[in-house]
Amino acid sequence: EMPARADTGNDLREPFSGLPVVVCEAHALKNTAPDGALDFLADGTAPAGPSPMLRLVPFSTVGAGGLMPAFRADKVTLKESGQVLDCYVALSSRPLSSGQFAALFNPHAFEG
């Protein structure tokens, strides 16, 4: 469980499936991220061989861009509504806030 912020500016999609991407601070998922995800953030090394659990999602922000390791979570649920989100979870090595939240999602990506 972690605090998340709705961000309509987050239009990230996993390139192959088209599913929306929830961005999380890597430290918040250090015990649950798939093998290779944290290594990619630490040294930019992609896992050797294909990884069915790990995808690299391209991103761009004002003044930055690159790839974030992402995985399809078993289950992501919005606590307040109980809505289950069909999505990928990408790990960010940078803080998303000064401690108020650890994840960003686009609420419009999950409507309907």
Number of beta strands: 8
What would the average pLDDT be, to the nearest integer?
A: 86
Q: Which H/E pattern describes the elements?
A: EEHEEEEEE
Helix content: under 10%
SS summary, helix count: 1
Give the strand order of the largest sheet, numbering strands 1, 2, ... along the chain: 1-8-2-7-4-3
**C-alpha termini separation:** 24 Å
Flag low-confidence runs: none
Strand content: 25-35%
Features:
112 residues; mainly beta; two-stranded antiparallel sheet; globular
Structure description:
It contains one helix and eight strands, in the order E-E-H-E-E-E-E-E-E. The mean pLDDT is 86. 6% of the residues lie in helices and 32% in strands. It starts with a strand and ends in a 7-residue tail after the last strand. The chain is mainly beta and 112 residues long. It has one helix spanning 37-43; strands at residues 4-6, 21-25, 55-61, 64-72, 76-77, 84-85, 88-92, 103-105. The protein is globular.
Brief summary:
The strands form two sheets. A six-stranded mixed β-sheet has the order 1-8-2-7-4-3, with helices on one face.
Write the layout of secondary structure elements.
Blueprint: E1 4-6, E2 21-25, H1 37-43, E3 55-61, E4 64-72, E5 76-77, E6 84-85, E7 88-92, E8 103-105
Parallel strand pairs: 1-8, 2-7
Antiparallel strand pairs: 2-8, 3-4, 4-7, 5-6
